[in-house]
Amino acid sequence: MDLAEAIQKDIWHPREEESSVRLPPYTPDQVIRLERVHKVYNTGEVEVHALRGVSLLIKRGEFVAVMGPSGSGKSTLMNILGCLDRPTRGRYFLEGVDVSTLSKNELADIRNRRIGFVFQAFNLVPRASALENVELPLLYAGVPAKERVRRAREALAAVGLADKERSFPNQLSGGQQQRVAIARALVNNPSIILADEPTGNLDSRTSVEVMEIFQRLNRERNLTLIIVTHEHDIAQYAKRIILFRDGRVRHDVPVEVPREAREILAAMPPEEESDEDLGDLEGGFSGLRAK
Amino acid sequence: MKIWAILKVAFRALGRNKLRSTLTMLGIIIGVGAVIAMVSIGQGAQAMVRDQIQSMGTNVMFVWAGSRMWGGVRLGAGAAATLTAQDAEAIEREIPLVAAASPIVRASAQVVFGNQNWFTSIQGTNEKFPKIRNWPVQDGEFFHEGDVRAAARVVVLGKTVVDNLFQGINPVGQTIRIRNLPFRVIGILAPKGQSVMGQDQDDLIVMPYTTVQRKLLGQQILSINSIMISFVTPAAATAGEQRVAELLRQRHKTPPGQDDFMVRNMTEIAEAAEQTNRVMTLLLGSIAAVSLIVGGIGIMNIMLVSVTERTREIGIRMAVGARPSHIRMQFLTESLVLCLMGGIVGLLLGVGLSVGISRVLGWPTLVSPLSMVISFSFAAAVGVFFGYYPAHKAASLDPIEALRYE
C-alpha cells in the first residue's frame, strides 16, 4: 500500500514504518508472530485505533514484560494474543497457525489447549474448590475425571498449594488465589501463559512470590511467558521488555540482568504471621484499587 | 464435556441458591401436579359415564312406535300400534349388521309375594334380552324361545324387586302374583345399579313379550312398544340405523318424512355424554397447563437473573476454553434439571391429590400413565423452551466483556 492510498484511507501515521519492521521468515521456534496487526474499535461515532500495525516475534522460552500507559493498546494486544479477540487487520500466528481467521469454536479450543491466562483479579470460579478451579480447562478439553484430578493436583503442587486443594477461593489469601490461577493456566500444558497485571492486587512480598513461580516455570519448563505490568520493578524480572505507546511498539529491549525473585525472596524479612489476613484484605480492596 | 460434569455444575449452581431454586421449581410442581390431578378427575368422570353406558348395553338402538293423535291429544312415543313383533324378526333376519333384535312390550303392575307387594315396571322381551342388553342372569336362568312362543308365565326379576319381595328367601322356583295371575320365578338378573339418568335399573321384571301382550294386557291386536336392536359392532350403528329405518318404511309402506316410528341410538347418547366429559377434561387440563407455562416463565426469569449474576464466571469459563455450545448446554441443563425435579415432585403431588380427592370427596379419579407421561414431558419441554433464551444469551456473551463485568 503506498502512502497516498494510506492517507486517503486515514490509516497512515508518521510512525507506520517504524513499527512495521520487516520480520524474519517463519521458524518453528516462533511461538508468537504478529504481522502488522491492527485493531480498530467502532464505538458508534468514534473509531478507536487500539493497535496500529504491531509486528512482533516471541520465541519459545522467552519471558516478556509488556509495559505502557493505560490506553497504549497493551490490553488489546493481550486480548488478541489470548485469542479472546481477533485483529481487524494483519495476521497472528500462534505456533505457526494463523489464528486471525478462526471461528469462535476454534478460538475456544486454541485458548483451551495453547493458552493459559492469569488475571489481575485472579478470576477463580467462586463456588468451586481450588482443585475444581484448576480442573476447569481439562473439563472442556474432555479429559477423563481421574486424569483431570491427577493433573490438577500436579499443577497445584507445582505452585506449592498441594495442601489447599479443598479450599474455596474465599478461604485463600490473594497470593494463594493467584497461585491457584497460575496452576489453572498451567494444567493443560499451554504454549504460552498470558498474565495481565498478575501482581496488581498483591502486596510486594506475594508479588515477588508470584514472580518467583513464573521465573521457575520459565526456567524449568521452558514455558513462554508474557506479562502485562505497569510496575517497573516487576518488569525487571522478565528477560525482555516491550514498551507500548499509542498502539505501537515503542521500545523492545532485552533485560541485561533480570532480577532473581528467588534471591530477593531470600533477602526479605520472614513472612509476617498475619499474611493470610492481609491477603484477604488486599483481595477485598481489589475492586476499589482497580477503579 | 461429560454429562456428569455438566450435571454436577448444574446442581451446584442450583444448590447455591436453594430458596430461589425451590420457589422457581414450585411453579412447575404446581403446574404438573394440577395437570395430573385435573386430568385424573376428568378421566375418572369419563370412565364412570362409559361404564354406565356400557351397562345399558353397547351398540344398542331402540326403535319406538310413532306417536298417535287421539282427539287432538298427542300421545307419547310408543303409543301407536305401528310396530309388530314381525318387524323385529324382519330386522334381525334381513339386516346383517344387526346382531339381535327383540320386541319390547312395557307394562307396570303391583307384584305380590306372600304378604309382600311391590309396584314395578314389566318388560316383555324375547329370549335375546341378556345378550342385547349385555345383562347376564345371576341366579337361575333366562327364559327360552319356547317360553316366548308359548307365552309362558315365567319371570326373571331385577335385584331391587327381589330385595323388596323376598326377605332372605331364594326367589328362584317361587311363584309371584301379578294382576292375580301366578308367575314362576326362574331367574334373577345381575345387579346393574343406576343408569346415567339416575334411574334404578334393577327395579324391573322381565318376561316373554307374548306373555305381556296376551296375559297381562290382553291385547286384541298384537302390537309392541318398541324394538331393541344390538349391532355387531359400535361402528355398525350409524349404517345399521339407516338400514333399519329403510326396512321399516318399506314394511309399513310409509313415504319418507312420514315415518310412523322413531329411532334412538344409544351410541349417540354415549358419545354425547363422553364428549361432554372429554371437553371438561380438556378444559381442566388446559387451565392447569396454563399454570405450567406460568411456571416456565418463572424459570426463564430466574435463569436470566442467573446468567447476569454469573457473567464473570461465564467469561472465565470461556477464557479457559469453553465453547459457546458448552455454556449453552450448561444453562440449558440447569433449567432442565429445575423442570425435571419440579416435574417429579409435581407428579407425586398430582397422584397424591387425585387419590386424596377420590378418598375425601368420593369422586372417581383415574390417574392414567399417559397423563403422567404427557405432563412430565411437557415440563421437560417447558424447561428447554424457557431455558433456551437465557442459555443462548449466556453463550453469545463476549468473553472480554464478560471478564470485565463487575
Features:
heterodimer, A: 291 residues, alpha/beta, Rossmann fold, six-stranded mixed beta sheet, four-stranded antiparallel beta sheet, 11 helices, 39% helix, disordered C terminus, B: 406 residues, alpha+beta, 2 domains, six-stranded mixed barrel, two-stranded antiparallel sheet, 13 helices
Describe the structure in your own words:
- The complex is a heterodimer of chains A (291) and B (406).
- Residues 6-20 and 273-291 of chain A have low confidence and may be disordered.
- Chain A has a 6-stranded mixed sheet with strand order 6-7-8-3-9-10, with helices on both faces. In chain A, strands 2-1-4-5 form a 4-stranded antiparallel sheet, covered by helices on one side.
- Chain A has a single domain, classed as 3-Layer(aba) Sandwich (Rossmann fold).
- Chain A has 291 residues and is an alpha/beta fold.
- Chain A is built from 11 helices and 10 strands.
- Chain A is globular.
- Chain A starts with a helix and ends with a helix.
- Chain B is α+β, with helices and mostly antiparallel strands and 406 residues long.
- Chain B folds into 2 domains: 3-52 and 272-404, no CATH class; 60-232, no CATH class.
- Helices cover 56% and strands 18% of the residues of chain B.
- Chain B is built from 13 helices and 12 strands.
- In chain B, the strands form 2 sheets. Chain B has a 6-stranded mixed barrel.
- In chain B, helix 2 packs antiparallel against helix 9 (266-309), helix 9 crosses helix 11 and helix 11 packs antiparallel against helix 12.
- The longest helix of chain B has 44 residues, at 266-309.
- The radius of gyration of chain B is 33 Å and the shape is elongated.
- In chain B, 44% of the residues are buried.
- Chains A and B meet through helix 4 and helix 5 of A and helix 1, helix 10, helix 11 and helix 13 of B.
